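B., you asked whether I could sanity-check this one before it goes into the benchmark set. Here's the sequence:
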Amino acid sequence: MDKLSLALSPSPLPHPQLSLRLRTDADLAAIADLWVATWQEVMPEIDFSARLPWFRDHLLALETAGAVTVCAFDPLGRLLGFFTLAVATGYLDQLAVASEAKGTGAAHLLLDEARRRSPNGLVLDVNQDNPRAVAFYEREGFARVAEGVNGRSGRKTWRLQWPHPA
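And here's what the prediction gave me:
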């Protein structure tokens, strides 16, 4: 059995109506649609639909290199969010939550699972002009450790780290 078909180990969920599991091939289209929708909401001036081939290739390359993609589903099986984590480095490459799931704790649930999978710490890059995401991560205990620029969009980013560096 490959690592993408393994079940998540049981863990207490703050929202028992949500379930987490590793991505399957059947989830890829829904993940891609959610990725486009969440980014279009934040940066409507960028055509993220045109970036779908890049996203799919990027996700699969990360997973081939050992990353995991974990999905959150509602009781009807609808995808509410996902994250992609390079477990070896603790780099959180993606965390996306559907509009209808914002404010429900779905993002917190996903982030807690990422922390469980990378207990020595997480690192991520977030767009500086995405104040909701910056505020979320800072509420969750992440600290700004560097400034950068997104190579694809040219937008300024923050490198965030959890736990807070000593």
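One thing to flag: The first strand starts at residue 19 and ends at 22. Otherwise nothing jumped out at me.
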